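hi! just following up on the protien thing from before. the input was this:
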Amino acid sequence: MIIDCILDRKDGMKYNPKAFYNKVMEYYNSFPEITGKIANALDNGTNENIRYELCMYIKYNEYNNDICSYILTKDWI
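and the predicted 3d structure came back as:
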């Protein structure tokens, strides 16, 4: 899931924007209602748009809000 990609980066795994995009698109095929806005932000948005959608994903799935604080400190594109 996308949360795993975020947490891997948080845990120090090297981040690759293209690999992250590809992973989101893999999940999009199975869960478009969850990942659609993230995919759209990655395709058409700014870093701020991506951060927002990732934080909405965290909130929607009731993950720890500290993860959103982390997301807001990173560049995703």
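The two ends are 19 Å apart (CA to CA).
DSSP finds five helices and no strands in the chain.
cheers
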